[in-house]
Amino acid sequence: MGTLYLVRHGQASFGADDYDQLSELGHRQSVRLGEYFAHQGIHFDGLIAGTLRRHKQTLAGILQGMNRAGEHLSWEGLNEYDSEAVIAAVHPEPLKKPDSPEMYRHHFRLLRDGLAQWMAGTTSPRGMPAYGDFVAGVAGALDHVRANHYGQKVLIVTSGGPISTAVGHVLGTSPETTIELNLRIRNTAVTEFAFTPKRHMLVTFNTLPHLDAPELRDWVTYA
């Protein structure tokens, strides 16, 4: 039996011109997770990350917290969908940057609708693969882990979309459930699978064991 840990990136820069950049808190979240892994005596035999900047920065922070270095495998199939393209496919008019609770809610209502239509194949967001190809990219990473790391511990750093897709793929959930999982994943949350050469089995989802102290309550974020 092997263990796969999927970690969502630390807090990024939602609403900024460049979202794909960890905030200062996002970096601290990542380092804290690495410290937790080290304290638990967890050593990773394999490191895999998407190719986005926030994925690489989060992995670097985790390794810093573990006081170790390591080469990782870059996997484009673990990159997040383009949320702006998803929204534009159902709302062609330009959106203002969200700066109020209502505008944030409006943004995520549109995202939910856009994801549902993309998954159903009724829209084709610009510059994005078909949903089936997106799922295949995530499933390919899971297949790689099973084929190459049986009996080992593996860390994948990615985004909420691929993590929820991985959970949905393993459990056979509906698209609607996959969307709900996606919109609930917190920054640097850990999702754990046990795996054999034949299959993955969900153990935990969206946990924050490294942020469970009362003084770290303000470190829990979603964007």
From TrEMBL:
SUPFAM superfamilies: Phosphoglycerate mutase-like (SSF53254). GO terms for molecular function: hydrolase activity. SMART domains: PGAM (SM00855). Pfam families: His_Phos_1. It comes from the Bacteria. Keywords: Hydrolase. The keyword Hydrolase applies. Transmembrane segments: none annotated. Coiled coil: none annotated. PANTHER family: PHOSPHOGLYCERATE MUTASE-RELATED, SERINE_THREONINE-PROTEIN PHOSPHATASE PGAM5, MITOCHONDRIAL. This is Histidine phosphatase family protein. It comes from Ramlibacter humi.
